[in-house]
Amino acid sequence: xxxxxxxxxxxxxxxxxxxxxxxxxxxxxRMTLNMGPQHPSTHGVLRVVLELDGETIIKxxxxxxxxxxGIEKECEVKTWQQVVTLTDRVDYxxxxxxxxxxxxxxEKLIGDIxxxxxxxxxxxxxxxxxxxxxxxxxxxxxxxxxGAMSVFFYCFREREDILRILEMxxxxxxxxxxxxxxxxxxxxxxxxxxAVGKFIGxxxxxxxxxxxxLDTNPIxxxxxxxxxxxPLEVLLDLGVTGPMIRAAGVKWDIRKSEPYxxxxxxDFEVPTRTExxxxxxxxxxxxxxxxxxxxVKQALEGMPEGAWQxxxxxxVLPEREKMKTQMEALIYHFxxxxxxxxxxxxxxxxxxxxxxxxxxxxxxxxxxxxxxxLFMRTPSFGNxxxxxxxxEGRLLADSIAALGSMDFVLGDTDR
Amino acid sequence: MADAIVGGHxxxxxxxxxxxxxxxxxxxxxxxxxxxxxxxxxxTAVDWHPADPRFEVVYLLHSLEKNIRLRxxxxxxxxxxxxxxxxxxxxxxxxxxxxxxxxxxxxxxxHPDMRRILMPHDWEGSPxxxxxxxxxxxxxxxxx
Lengths: 415, 144
Fold this sequence. Notes:
The complex is a heterodimer of chains A (415) and B (144). Chain A has 415 residues and is mainly alpha-helical.
């Protein structure tokens, strides 16, 4: 990377005056531009070194790692249940998807643990609410990048409602850690049906509002249509997943192809487009918001009765009341809190569909109370690798739209 | 091709094949071209310190058409800490192999751009190795 900077070849003011502000010819046209790591449209700390010929991008080299915090290493010294709080911090917008994939992977390793229907449905509902949250932040900030400022305020208005619901359920707005190994963290609060029902009843009309705001905006359509395209084979080869690949015409959604946490019981569609440009990605995400709202509505209406945690006293913390009256409950509580539970030796790879694509956790256990190795296959890392394919050979002005349409979270990339 | 496979198992319904280190590129090419494993989900490694061979390089494959996942593993010894790169098969391998190189110090032969990806370029050591400390820092500022 350092060598690239040394070749920086810019035109000085005097030189420009001498040549009468003519575009220089030959090698002088080349220029290396350092975008980021603190550029507002990189949505975090991403650095892209762009080599330009005039306004055309010849080469784009993403430079990541600014947000690397060593989460995978940290997981190896935490107990199994403690790791849940770390999975939140991987992707601050899709924290519930990360909680979910971790819990599912560990439950797969444990084997004989049955998650009650109510916990599964709660997980689905919360994961979909966090998908809405993520898509709303994406839409607001992406529109802001392109110049449609008001959409940002509309999106954050609805996002605030979602965060209030998350706070109601878990006590936290963002780092919820709501989905735990063996179920969910807390019993649903009193009056949750009314809160979720009120939000989800109004939400579809809000999506119509965003659609009207953007579709009738000529600047938006001209800056997004035909921008940021790359051949489908290239995208697949580069490991792109999620709405990006669905906007290229691949009808693949892990919630349908490898259903988890009883997603097979919900009725929803997988929206796809074929244009494979920034506009198509926007349309796919907009349709996904409508589908997620449908899922939340179904979960709200058909929420099963019963327990919200598995009947596994060695894994799930006992109720407070039981600890005061039952000796076993007190012992289990002591064991879980001091030592943590053991997970049988083995390995598992679990995937879920996050708002950005495939999250996969590869968990290795050596039979102790801490994970031996936890590899997080994060969608932002996989998708960001395709950035040069979207930028190279195109105009610099389009790079912002293309970058934004990928919807990456840098914490998710660097872990 | 069969002689390249040195073992395998299917835990929790997830098939895993152990591949001999020298044949990994052939096997991957066959799986992609003939068996339609179009996607490479990721590459990672596990450090089984102090066992020998010390490392396992893990390849997570996915076939969209057949909707199946397959895991390949190669054992890599610490004394010969390198393996052939599969970037020629899937371009997605590029960053994942750089990450394994960065975190475990396993080299990938014929990789187009073998540099650190997440850690600073002048970093010493491989953070995800088991003998690398979780806490602490090499330099002490207290006596300065």
